[in-house]
């Protein structure tokens, strides 16, 4: 059980473990790319097309920047390995199977899909379109970043229902800022194992945003929306996802904002 009253030794230990936390920026961009590709159009595979001399040639498949970023970061994080189980067959993987899969197995399948694309162009586009690569990538993120309760390991909780107030939150487009208001609860969506945290956006909108759509970055102590709607972080519901930001004319003044929970506490510099 967590207790609000920690001994000095315990507090120091939490502080030290927090301060030495390794940056998770590559993991953040990995999961962010999976949402960007999820939002994007269906990717065409390699196909025959006429060139300027009217000869039919093979043209590469669609390769949006989110896909090249995803592949780069997969290599950087060593999620594409040279030693992997070549008999692993990713074609018939279901969401449920991926969610239950051990980390090593997830890495086997990712390695297989990315490496297979070198011999069989179009494999990547196929596994983005059928969501299997995107789900595998999110599972790898879960294993690395979350604890067994699906909560970010690096983000300290005060107790089961509370996190620190006043943490900086940034919208998916990084155009709108918010602050945590301290609340924490399980996400009520049946298909989701995430957690909601309370956020008061500078737009004056109070929301509870799910950890499936945000990332906590320990090196800056910030929470970033990475999937779904800009400030709602909702991606499960059909578009438009959750509430959009209200127009600037309706935003509270900075003076008023600074009297509200989350904003009263200045962010640590
Ligand atoms: Zn959720």
Can you walk through the features of this model?
The protein has 269 residues and is α+β, with helices and mostly antiparallel strands. It has 2 domains: 21-145, no CATH class; 157-257, no CATH class. 32% of the residues lie in helices and 17% in strands. It is built from 8 helices and 10 strands. A 6-stranded mixed beta sheet has the order 8-7-6-5-10-9, with no helix packed on it. A two-stranded antiparallel sheet has the order 1-2. Strands 3-4 form a two-stranded antiparallel sheet. A hairpin with a 5-residue loop joins β1 (47-50) and β2. The longest helix is centred in the middle third of the chain and has 17 residues, at 103-119. The two termini are 31 Å apart. Residues 1-13 have low confidence and may be disordered. Bound molecules: zinc ion (ZN). Zinc ion (ZN) binds at residues 187, 189, 192, 194, 210, 212.
Q: Helical element count?
A: 8
Computed structural class? alpha+beta
Low-confidence stretches: 1-13
The order of strands across the largest sheet is: 8-7-6-5-10-9
> Roughly what is the average pLDDT, rounded to an integer?
89
Percent range of helical residues:
25-40%
H/E element sequence: HHEEHHHHHEEEEEEEEH
Give me the count of strands: 10
Strand content: 15-25%
The gross shape turns out to be globular
Radius of gyration: 21 Å
Question: What oligomeric assembly is this protein in?
Answer: single chain
What binds here, in terms of ligands, is: zinc ion
Largest sheet: 6 strands, mixed
Count of all domains: 2
